[in-house]
Design goal:
By secondary structure, the chain is mainly beta. The chain is about 10% helix and about 30% strand. A hairpin with a 2-residue loop joins strand 1 and strand 2 (about 15-20).
Length: about 70
């Protein structure tokens, strides 16, 4: 899965549309804007339709704020 579009964000909590790069299924889910979430949690999300995770070519998005900044 990867983030297709962030719908709303409050501090580090956000809601986004995630899209499966294998079958194109989209789903709305929450997330947390830190490096760990973008590099480890998102690529390991399983698609509800095809049950696959992100491929080796997955590139994580950058965070809106640096990890050491209090928002």
């Amino acid at each position: 899965m990867h983030i297709k579009r962030i719908i709303r964000q409050h501090r580090r909590d956000f809601t986004a549309i995630y899209e499966c790069e294998h079958c194109g299924t989209q789903e709305e889910a929450s997330g947390y804007d830190d490096t760990y979430f973008h590099q480890h949690v998102i690529p390991n999300m399983k698609c509800k339709r095809c049950t696959l995770t992100a491929g080796e070519d997955y590139r994580a998005l950058a965070t809106k704020y640096p990890d050491d900044q209090t928002v």
